[in-house]
Sequence to fold (955 residues):
Amino acid sequence: MPSDKKKRRPVLVQMETPNLIPERDLGSIPVLQAEHLGIDFGGLTAVDDFNIAMGRTEISGLIGPNGAGKTTIFNLLTSVYKPTRGTVLVDGYDTASKSVAEVNRMGVARTFQNIRLFSQMTVEQNVLVGYGNAMRTNLITDMLRLPGHWRQEAEYREKALELLDIFDMRKYADTQAGNLPYGAQRRLEILRALATGPKVLLLDEPAAGMNPAETEELMENILKIRDEFQIAILLIEHDMSLVMGVCEVVGVLDYGKIIAKGTPEQIQNDPRVIEAYLGKQEVK
Amino acid sequence: MFITQVLNGLQLGSIYALVALGYTMVYGIILLLNFAHGDIIMVGAYVSWLVMAQLGLNPVLAVILSVAACTLMGVLIDKVAYAPLRNAPRLSILITAIGVSYFLENGAQLVFGADAKVVPAYTDLQTIQVGGLALSFPSVLTVIVTIVATVALTLVVQKTKLGKAMRAVSEDMGAARLMGINVNSTISFTFAVGSALAGIGAVLYAMAYTQASPTMGMMLGTKAFVAAVLGGIGSIPGAVVGGLLVGFAEVVVTALGLSVWKDAVVFLLLIIVLVVRPTGIFGRTMNEKV
Amino acid sequence: MTEKRPIISTGGPQPAAGRRRSLSMPVRYAINAVLVLVILVLGELMIDGGAINRYQSTVLEQVGIYIILAVSLNIATGYLGQLPLGHAGFMSMGAYGCSIFIIRMSEVLGIGARDFVTGSPMTVLLVLGGLVVGGLCAAVAGIIIGIPALRLKGDYLAIITLAFAEIIRVVMLNIDSVLGFELTGGAAGLTGIPSYTSFLLVFGCVAVVCFLIHTMMKSRHGRAILAIRDNEIAAEATGVNTTYYKTLAFVASAFFAGVAGGLYAGCVGVLQPAVFGFMKSIEILVMVVLGGMGSMLGSALSATVLTILPEALRAFSEYRMIAYAIVLILVMIFRPQGLLGSYDFSLSRIIERVMNRDFPWSRKGAAPAGADDGKEASRDA
Fold:
């Protein structure tokens, strides 16, 4: 990544997590890795011993009942919360002392369960904020409108419009983000995250509030994004059709702990998962 | 003399504490920094002056009318200026509060003139003897009144039904409404109690400084406000501790012969406390859920 | 990473612009520059010719100064979405910094007060230098308070800036007795400031300040600031260094307030700390709020009206403050977004509108299909 070039390179850490990385991604370092990750809120353990290692083009899902700690894990992975225990590595680099923005620049982008757009800015501007990571002009160049400013603005505007084309949203470019229909707002969040140039994309309930047709389209788009951008995607979702449809690996979280992990087929037939969702069955 | 200085600190601190309680209560319930709170005190002081100096009536009546006027004023301000903005952005309500403050100050200036009015003494008794020490009676009275008022307030908030409603509304206004609590009357009640305390503060202030002026509320209010924030806004013990802290800081700085710097010291104290503890001494941290 | 890859496009190539026809940027800037020049020259001619008398031109200077104060505060309130209550503190830092610099430097260089009126090249340089020094003084104050203040949220930030401005005021009042020599003149005031402020200088500064704020906001830096206002958590997650950009907005706001302070000093000739109290901060805030937070034109308009109106209504000066207060409350209740909301005036946009709507034939043959698409897009927007 360009942003890392100038900094001194920290030592890559190799971790132990055995995992279900897809075969095509073996051989290169996992893009996102967490080891024995845990956080306590005032004595209450919200997440405990969470391990993950994601291949560079892997799509994984995180499911579990409400309150199981899924979003908390996203917050830990993006440095919103500082973990009580354990480590997060992005592309082999420790995120322990990094701010949320720095972790984003290291390559982790996310969307939010409750949509958080820059609602008073236009759709195009929302995406351009994401491209801010890659833009390089200094304040003086921009304030005095030196040629570098114009060149860069034109370049990234074009990029932003092309990015909007992914979800066929170019027509909304000048719309205020807060005025978009709900589904378009969710899509814009994904595009804004993509504009930051991530290596791994965290999607927090991307299909929430969507009808089956929209969910179907979203599934295609998730696969398309992975293929075009060659990035890893980790998603939290309640919609099982989506999880089973796109995820290669699924982890099931209950009371802050991973209780099962495997391919969608394995998960579907795992008694522990059924128990977590439906409660224990009395067996005589 | 050391005892006198301590007593001065307690007196000043008590007044700040009483006013700070009003800030804290209103903030606790509708998250509004009520800029007009200081000016309510100004109204109280003018009422005392009107009753005693202009009408020549009994000081007890002056006290009662001052407190009543402040209470009424507080409720009225809420109904007229803040209630229409209950669902508006917080910035709008804050600016409205600044507008109300502006209005009261300039209104008072228009009605009473810009110069300060002398408020007559409420009591002839100026000193009392305690164990061989001559103590200022107004100071002792101030401290006692503040203790009584704080205890009473704590009891009201903790033990009564209205207090319970207040706490519920401050936790979650929507949920409180669904539970059948009359949110508007609870807010009015909060303003009434906070303003009544300001009324008591007004009387005690007028007793100590014997004057009323249109802008008296501004500095007093700002300091009390600093006290409330220092202690952790929303917290009753915080307001008292903050008030005493500010009072003592001022007395100490004055005793050192640096009285011109006392305002700066108070504000510097605030900045330092906020940098170290962003929500004040007793404040609860509120994090936005991500 | 992403730029080298083919981008997926579901809709196939769309018409290149997909938008309305627009003026090229140099043309836009040229139009605005000409407009500013015309106003400056016209104003100067009217003053020289006596159509505007001395008193009126002083009022105009005040208008310009308040415009700068309002648009600079607007950076922190309208664009960053914070509520600093100590703008007068930054203004006073600039006023004292600038005037002390100019007084001392003219002593060193042997320039008399009269030279500032005639305006030799040396004094022009000195004044411009003084304004920058004033701005820098305020900017330093902005950094000092901004770093702790911006860690706090909303109300706490308001209080801490209020506290800081009060500290500045007390320091200006008493610093002389501590240092043991004359610096600020204390309560008696700083006198002997040459009257270097002129219509041309003030409105030249207004133009430059507005231009710089505009260009900052319409760049990646400005977008980052707006993003923080709209959603701080999302901004952080999108890679915006929130601490840096909040400080930047805050410091820019302070810097321009300092410049305005420097102009103010040259306009009134005497500086007293009491002038820069809490009420002055509120006065500036009222201008921004009334005009519409986030609207530069709104700030400028309400600064103009609120400066001229009291002068015109001198007879009713007692009621003026009350009227202020009532208007403020009413606006908040009935139009919380301010009179203009976040609308911003753009001459070039109006010209474009004329080009697009009223004279469609002017674009015939150029790109008729694209033009139609453009209209639809704009209607969607």
Q: What stands out?
A: Chain A touches chain C through 61 residues (CB under 8 Å). The two ends of chain A are 59 Å apart (CA to CA).
